[in-house]
Amino acid sequence: MISFPAPVSSARLSYAAHARSLLVLGLPLIGSNLAQMSLHVTDTIMLGWYGVPELAAVVLGSSYFFILFILGSGFSYAVMGMVAQALGAGEEAQVRRDARMGLWLSILFGVAVMPLMWASGPILLALGQRPELAQLAQDYLRVGMWGMVPALIIAVLKSYLSAQERTQVVMWVTLWGVVLNILANWALIFGNLGAPEMGVRGAALASVGVQISTSSLLLAYAAWAPALRKFHLLQRFWRPDWPAFVQVARVGLPIGLASVSEAGLFQASALMMGWIGTEQLAAHGIALELASLTFMVHMGLSNAATVRVGRARGARDGARLRDGALVAQLMSLVFGGVTVVLFLSQPELLIGLFLDMSNPAAPAILAFGAKLMVVAALFQMFDSLQVMALGLLRGVQDTRVPMWIAVASYWLVGIPASYVLAFPLGFGGVGLWLGLVIGLACAGGFLILRFWRGPWLRAA
């Protein structure tokens, strides 16, 4: 049985102090996550103005890219928890080792999955997508695949800097990327500023440019900022550190598989929605973008909780671990309640932001999307619960059992429930989304129960 060491300090923070510390760390992370998400939102809005088939195709293409990215990003989440714990314990050499091997693993993974994006057309056809949508999605991915490695490097560097509690620079660099993406999209999708009109390829090329620019800025800061130079992040970068490599892989791969299990729940729903119709798939993409925006707030709080819990564990302060976890969970649940009210009260307004209402297909997309927003309100609380539980568990480097909980909840419960409700029971797209609620409820309940019953709290 694992036991948590006795606290090294008798001083105990108040709940208000925990909340302040979490917000100081978490608000820039929330801003960064929202900015990162807005890259996809701007793609969706601008391609919604360009054409409905292009919008539907990029929903498919970005979903395909994202599910590969989220699998590889497990290494970055491992880096966040491991670096936070090493800093809490005062082990500077371990900080460098973990971050460097996290970059190695991310680069290797990014290169390995590029052929899957090049051959995405036949794969999407085999999954039942319409030929014209599969071809457009492949056009998008054959350009966008060059952004996978820099995107994964960004994820590792964000985790590294977050564990260092340097989240503001992450936010500002990501905001710069948003501005650049809007300008590049406007030029390359529509053919403005003398650029060729490239449609979906233009959106992909803009994203690649943003990813390269952002990764370069973050890497320069992480390596050469005066306060961070002592970690020598890039010194002899080419030299392998196999013990650290294996440890980051051991912690990170289950995180990636757990994340892809959840992402797979939503991406499988996109594939099934494509069987129903193009307008329904476009509405699904818009509603999912809105739900994902609010999810970024929960993700930011979850990441901050990972850092706070990891540092408390490294410092052997069980009371700080327990109290900080409780405050983080309560803050996430409160925001979840706020978004429920917003989604239920303003669904048409929110969906309409993504549409050119002069398009003949817009009224059907708006009506169907509003129905999906009502269901999205239902899973806000469960979504906030499961992502916070995962963040807390990553802080104590408990990743293997959460992976199995996620796989069972999403693939053995959620996806079958979505299929049965949508097709055999005849509820269509709304039933498909109700299956998402069921999967998220199972995951959230079991994951948070595991954290609060874990051995890391028994000595607190």
Description of the structure:
The protein is globular, with a radius of gyration of 21 Å. Helix 1 packs antiparallel against helix 11 and helix 14 runs parallel beside helix 16. The longest helix is centred in the middle third of the chain and has 37 residues. With 460 residues, the chain is an all-alpha fold. The protein contains 16 helices and no strands.
How are the elements arranged and paired?
Layout: H1 15-50, H2 52-72, H3 74-88, H4 92-118, H5 120-126, H6 131-144, H7 148-163, H8 167-190, H9 200-224, H10 242-276, H11 278-314, H12 318-345, H13 347-352, H14 362-395, H15 400-422, H16 428-452
Helix pairs in contact: 1-2, 1-8, 1-11, 1-12, 2-4, 2-6, 2-10, 2-11, 3-4, 3-7, 3-10, 3-11, 4-7, 4-10, 5-6, 6-9, 7-9, 8-9, 10-11, 10-15, 10-16, 11-12, 11-14, 12-14, 14-16, 15-16
What is shown here, in short?
This protein has 460 residues and is mainly alpha-helical. It is built from 16 helices and no strands.
